[in-house]
Specification:
The protein is an alpha+beta fold. The protein has 28 helices and 19 strands.
């Protein structure tokens, strides 16, 4: 649709003059001259004059059919950020409407999107707020992003990948939700080129090989359909299209299909005047070609979430090549091509255009409302990734109401989509009159009946948060626990905090924990420690996000990073967990390094970590410097010794290579059992040479014990070699 990387102002004016709608050229010309003057001699990274960028963005928006104010704002969209032109001057010169659009786009770009997840979430939330005030802000941003992606070759490779990933996760789903197909597909295709260049080249090569055959085939089918249908239905338009590279990629590399199994690579689109004509044409097409079972979709009766409407059927011609036929009215076609931009492009031709606009904007408010309830900014990211996913399923209630959900949604998501109380009281579900588990993922066309409890005290399970897919369901489950189970949440949250502290080797008293958590309480506006525990309990605060801050405060409190080793030696209490002697440290926190798994008898050395006490390594470990006196951070390496010989057990890893055969692992396990050894962990794989590689974790007393175990294992048939990890 948008074929050029850069456009000049003359081409923009020419496009406007050819447009089928009226523009105020005085305002647009004034905006261009202001941008030209303020940007002056500025250059893009590629070296071209900067003014070509806003002109090209405006060109895209004219192609979409946006109004005069949007075109002017596009020409000025970088003026506030990159020049000395002030906001006051902007509002005075161009009026409040254009100023609001420009400042909205400017605010979206102040902080880079490719940053930490929480910062990215806040930026995207800012974008959604701007969209809720005037949806044209995000349309300008989408055109800006598209133009930037067309000229991104001059950027570093990592930046190209970051921007491409962001397109796939944020901007393409938003363009899809707004129904702007052309921007969505081009953003995805350019992004795929940088995210998976090998697959992209393979798809393009496959399409190029059959380019002439494809064009001949589409032309033949178009003529055949037109000749047959035009006899019965007047004013029809027939056109052909090829599926986008990313659309093919999703089916080939995500769903594991080969090119021949993708039935909608080729498509013929038939556009007519009325809905009745659409269904009449469907019958004629099925008379002409063999319909493929289960490949018919009626998006006219059941529109997609982005208001897309069309009939889709996949048929097989005499040539044996499957192709898709899309049938729609002109009004449906405008909505399918331009989405929300059709509100401006063909405003007079769309019935109920204000309702049309409100339908598009409603999901923005829903995402913001959900995030406001949870207080977690990163829920915005989840909502866009999940709720705006292009793949949808359409499920029916027993009364025939259609509910649209993202692909992978469960019966719990369905229950909460109907009503909050139905979700909260749910105890089971029937799909097509059969009882299904609550983890069941619904499919298009299924009739789902939710079974609810009459018990007033019945509520959702905490485990449901891990099962559901939609952010709406997650938010409503968290709301219920927040409202109904405060005492239970406090207990649950307290247990989770204690568990996480133990997992991170943080041992503190209640008073010390209060000091450590004070900054976190202030930052999240919790009045008491109980409020914090309650939030953790119902899922409002996720511990993995705050545990790094807890570690920082713990280190400050204990001053672990200031410990310096000295010459004198004092032994730890033999009742201590590890029975290791560390120079100048009594009862210190000890952990055995997983990189070498030292056991008694090994020559060992300690390393003072930041926040985890002393890590014990084998002296021969690859991670231990050869010369401890001259290495970096030499003051953190400390002499360590085994305190006694009567240690019960230590974990050791053993690597076994053997010729693969039936019952090999069983024989090894049996041999270990005869030595009264239990297996902590075991993993295995077979390489291309049919050699089994087995890793086993066992507990032994010391090196001598481990050597004896290895010697005994050699008696097992087929074993080629055994080594200690």
């Amino acid at each position: 649709m948008f074929e050029s990387s850069y456009n000049n102002y003359d081409s923009l004016v020419d496009l406007i003059s050819k447009s089928d709608k009226s523009y105020d050229l005085d305002i647009i010309d004034k905006a261009y001259k202001c941008a030209l003057k303020t940007h002056g001699d500025q250059k893009r990274v590629s070296g071209v004059p900067y003014i070509l960028h806003p002109v090209s963005v405006a060109y895209i928006l004219v192609r979409l059919g946006m109004d005069t104010q949007t075109i002017a704002a596009a020409l000025l969209h970088d003026v506030l950020e990159d020049t000395d032109f002030t906001a006051e001057e902007m509002e005075k010169e161009f009026g409040k409407e254009i100023f609001v659009l420009v400042s909205g786009v400017t605010n979206l770009g102040r902080v880079p999107y490719s940053s930490k997840e929480e910062q990215q979430a806040k930026n995207i939330r800012k974008m959604l707020i701007a969209m809720s005030k005037d949806i044209r802000v995000i349309i300008i941003k989408l055109a800006d992003r598209l133009q930037n992606m067309r000229t991104i070759e001059c950027m570093p490779e990592q930046k190209r990948r970051d921007k491409s990933l962001e397109n796939m996760e944020v901007f393409a789903p938003i363009a899809h939700r707004l129904g702007i197909r052309a921007i969505k597909e081009e953003l995805e295709d350019i992004s795929l080129k940088y995210l998976d260049p090998v697959a992209y080249r393979e798809i393009q090569h496959s399409l190029a090989l059959k380019k002439d055959d494809r064009e001949d085939f589409l032309e033949l089918i178009k003529n055949k359909i037109y000749d047959r249908i035009s006899k019965f239905i007047p004013n029809i338009h027939v056109e052909g299209r090829v599926k986008s590279a990313n659309g093919i990629y999703r089916k080939m590399f995500v769903k594991g299909k080969v090119m021949e199994e993708i039935y909608d690579i080729y498509a013929v689109r038939v556009i007519v005047d009325t809905v009745n004509d659409c269904y009449n044409i469907l019958g004629l097409v099925h008379e002409m070609f063999q319909p493929i079972p289960n490949r018919f979709k009626d998006y006219i009766s059941i529109p997609k979430l982005n208001m897309y409407q069309s009939l889709h059927t996949t048929v097989l011609g005499k040539e044996g090549i499957p192709f898709e036929v899309q049938i729609r009215t002109w009004e449906m076609h405008r909505t399918a091509e331009y989405g929300i931009a059709a509100h401006w492009k063909y405003k007079l031709g769309i019935s109920g255009s204000e309702d049309f606009l409100e339908e598009y904007a409603s999901w923005v408010h829903q995402i913001l409302d959900n995030q406001k309830e949870t207080g977690d900014a990163t829920d915005v990211i989840s909502s866009i990734k999940l709720d705006l996913a292009p793949e949808e399923v359409f499920v029916l209630t027993p009364k025939g109401k259609v509910v649209s959900l993202p692909m992978g949604a469960t019966v719990i998501d369905f229950a909460y989509a109907i009503h909050t109380e139905i979700g909260n009281k749910m105890i089971g579900a029937k799909v097509d009159k059969r009882i299904v588990p609550i983890t069941y993922k619904v499919k298009t066309g299924e009739i789902v009946d939710i079974i609810i409890s009459r018990d007033r005290n019945k509520g959702p399970s905490r485990d449901w948060i891990k099962i559901v897919r939609t952010s709406e369901a997650k938010t409503k489950i968290k709301q219920w626990f927040k409202r109904e189970r405060r005492d239970e949440n406090i207990i649950e949250g307290n247990l989770e905090v204690e568990k996480e502290l133990r997992r991170n080797n943080i041992s503190v008293s209640g008073e010390e924990l209060q000091k450590i958590l004070e900054p976190i309480l202030r930052r999240n506006q919790f009045k008491t420690l109980s409020d914090f525990y309650a939030s953790v309990g119902y899922g409002g605060i996720q511990l993995w996000r705050v545990i790094p801050r807890i570690k920082e405060e713990y280190i400050k409190l204990k001053n672990i990073n200031r410990v310096k080793p000295k010459v004198s030696v004092s032994k730890v209490d033999k009742s201590n967990y590890n029975s290791v002697v560390v120079d100048n440290m009594n009862n210190c926190l000890i952990r055995f390094s997983k990189c070498c798994n030292p056991v008694p008898g090994d020559n060992i050395v300690g390393f003072i970590t930041r926040g985890y006490g002393v890590s014990i390594h084998k002296r021969s470990c690859p991670n231990v410097p050869q010369d401890l006196n001259t290495c970096n951070e030499n003051e953190r390496w400390v002499n360590s010794y085994w305190a006694c010989d009567d240690i019960k057990s230590f974990k050791a890893m053993v690597n076994i290579r053997a010729s693969d055969r039936c019952a090999l692992i069983a024989d090894i396990a049996n041999e270990l059992a005869q030595m009264n050894l239990s297996i902590n962990e075991i993993s295995s794989r077979v390489n291309k040479e049919n050699i089994a590689i087995i890793n086993i974790s066992i507990k032994v007393k010391n090196v001598q014990h481990l050597n004896a175990v290895i010697k005994k294992l050699y008696s097992v048939e087929s074993i080629l070699s055994i080594s200690r990890a």
